[in-house]
Each structure stands twice: as structure tokens, then as C-alpha cells.
Amino acid sequence: MSENVITSYKGFDKNMKCRGFQYEVGKEYEMDGEIKCCRQGFHACKSPMEVWDYYDMLSSRYAEVEQSGKIDKEENSTKVCSSRIKIKAELKLADIIDIGVEWLKEITSPSKVKKDGALNDNGDRKKQIGSSGDSAQIGSSGDYAQIGSSGDSAQIGSSGDYAQIGQAVTMLRLVQAVTLLRLVQAVTMLRLVQAVTMLRLVQAVTMLRLVQAVTMLRLVQAVTMLRLVQAVTMLRLVALEKIPLLCVLATVQ
């Protein structure tokens, strides 16, 4: 039987470190002992945008990773803790945004919802969406309902001591991602304009120098021609015995 491998996304500081542990792209790491989320193990998120809950959006580095071995998953999030992790490839911020948008589209697609059996209203305590059930994810009641009108652990609801408003957070992240992507595009366009402007400036300076060189060459040619005409004139005068030869030699020098 093949080992369960989870593709997820991990954030690092500018030195590719997480909680003081040094990572490198292409390397695989393994840890012994009990694996428990937020306690011990290698952590990453299946949702690319959830990485921003733990690392600054602009100053961090990101990577696509593969998690395997012992696995522990955190409830009400996509955080995964594993005993083994492989840093598969480093990603840019724009990559995280693009992958995050595609991830949101995938998990909210009608086919995905139907496949997971998300719509149910029979009161089963283990169903994801129902009008009741202590473990229902979407329901009007249940102490652990994620979306409901009541429940102390409800994520979205009119009451609940630990309500998190998940849909609003997801939408906010999406808006932030799109805004940041447009900002990156604007900065890229500005740099492109600056590069083109600099290239044109260099071309203008080069053309100016070329014109100056041609002008200087023509000036030298003109001076040389003038001296040549003067020398020929002097020689003719000598031939006519109008001036001494020494005067001609002094003029040429």
C-alpha cells in the first residue's frame, strides 16, 4: 500500500527558517516521537492563503511541500502536522495567490460539494450540513456546529463564544490576494516602463555621442584640409619665388 502523501504549503522567514529550524528546497526532513498540531511536528497548510495567518504576506518566503509519515490535522482549519516533510519547490507571492484562488474555486465547486455529501438535513450527528447534530458543520444547532444560529464552537452564527465568521475571513483573504496581485502587476508595469525609459535614454546618449564623434571627425578633416590648402598655396608661392622656403616650412610646422 502506498504511503499517504499530502501536498500543502508552508511559510518561512526571509532566511528560509520556521521557528528557528533551517529548511532548504529539495531536502526532506523527519521527526520522531508523538506528532501533534501546534506541539510537535512539521506544520503546513493545505490552503495556500492560510499560511498568511502565521507569516507576514509581504516579507515571507513560501514553498510547496509534501507531508507524509505520521499525520495529525487541526480541526476547523487546513493545518496539517506530519513526522516527515519534503520542501518540494519555492513559490513566489504571486504563485501563492494564483494557487490560492484555484484552491478556493475547487473546494467551492458544485461537484466537490456534491461529492463530499455536504447537503443533508436529516439530523445525523456526523453530517457536514444539517439542521442539527453536535458535530454538524452547518446547522441551526449543535455545540460544535461550524455554521449555525447557535453553538459555543460555531464558526459562523448569530451566537457562539468562539464564532470566527469563516466566510467573511475567506472573502477578505481573497480580496487581499487580488489587490496584492494587482499591486504586483502595477509595480511590474512601472519597472517595465522605467526599463524602457532607461533604454531610450541610453540610446539617446549613445546617439548624441555618435553625433559628437562625427562632428569632431569632420572638424578634424576640415582643419586638415585647411592646412593642406595652406601648404599647397605656400609651395606655389615658393615656386613663383614670392616668399622664402623657410617661411613655408615654418607655416607647415
Structural summary, described in words:
With 253 residues, the protein is of the alpha+beta class. It has four helices and seven strands. The strands form two sheets. Strands 1, 4, 5, 6 and 7 form a five-stranded antiparallel sheet that branches. Strands 2-3 form a two-stranded antiparallel ribbon. The longest helix has 74 residues, at 166-239. It is rod-shaped and about 115 Å long. The model is unreliable at 118-164 (pLDDT under 50).
Helix content: 40-55%
> Number of helical segments?
4
Biggest β-sheet: count, sense, barrel? Answer: 5 strands, antiparallel
Mean pLDDT: 77
Class derived from helix and strand content: alpha+beta
**Counted beta strands:** 7
Q: Report Rg.
A: 38 Å
Order of helices and strands: EEEEEEEHHHH
**Range of strand content:** 15-25%
SSE arrangement:
Blueprint: E1 6-12, E2 17-18, E3 21-22, E4 28-30, E5 42-45, E6 61-73, E7 79-91, H1 93-107, H2 110-115, H3 166-239, H4 245-252
Antiparallel strand pairs: 1-6, 2-3, 4-7, 5-7, 6-7
Question: How do you describe this structure in short?
Answer:
The protein has 253 residues and is of the alpha+beta class.
Q: What characteristics describe this protein?
A:
4 helices; two-stranded antiparallel sheet; five-stranded antiparallel sheet; rod-shaped; 253 residues; single chain
